[in-house]
């Protein structure tokens, strides 16, 4: 899901110490998941966050890829136990790997999140500021 993708990015970006990606993707996770505190828990320590078994297995695998651990059959079995298949494993790994690169580019360019990302999913939108014309 979109929320799953954002949660993977939050966990791996936290490990990679990428402020921009942590803040912006936490915001997107809050919006997609409707869980306003979960991404903050994952930023601090995903292993003690209020995750479902499915989310925990997903993040365990994503973090193994992020840390460049040796991926074993045990990793795939853990995913399969909660309903993921090998194609899902590829998707999880691809997100973790892509954002490892993205995190490093954000560091290189000294990207900083804007205030809107910090507030997204925490503060109700001001619909009067909608600039889209019909």
UniProtKB/TrEMBL annotation:
Residues 2-61 form the Carboxymuconolactone decarboxylase-like domain. Gene3D superfamilies: AhpD-like (1.20.1290.10). It comes from the Eukaryota. GO terms for molecular function: peroxiredoxin activity. Pfam families: CMD. InterPro entries: AhpD-like (IPR029032), AhpD_core (IPR004675), CMD-like (IPR003779), Uncharacterised_peroxidase-rel (IPR010195). PANTHER family: CARBOXYMUCONOLACTONE DECARBOXYLASE-LIKE DOMAIN-CONTAINING PROTEIN (PTHR35446:SF2), SI:CH211-175M2.5 (PTHR35446). This is Uncharacterized protein LOC568697. The lineage of its organism: Eukaryota, Metazoa, Chordata, Craniata, Vertebrata.
């Amino acid at each position: 899901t979109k929320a799953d993708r954002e949660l993977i990015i939050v966990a791996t970006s936290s490990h990679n110490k990428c402020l921009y990606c942590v803040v912006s993707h936490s915001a997107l996770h809050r919006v997609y998941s409707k869980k306003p505190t979960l991404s903050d828990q994952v930023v601090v320590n995903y292993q003690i966050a209020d995750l479902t078994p499915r989310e925990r297995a997903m993040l365990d695998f994503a973090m193994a890829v992020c840390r460049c651990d040796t991926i074993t059959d045990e990793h795939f079995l853990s995913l399969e136990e909660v309903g993921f298949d090998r194609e899902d494993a590829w998707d999880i790994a691809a997100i973790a790997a892509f954002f490892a690169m993205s995190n490093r580019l954000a560091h290189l360019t000294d990207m900083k999140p804007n205030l809107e990302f910090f507030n997204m999913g925490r503060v109700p939108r001001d619909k009067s500021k909608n600039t889209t014309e019909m």
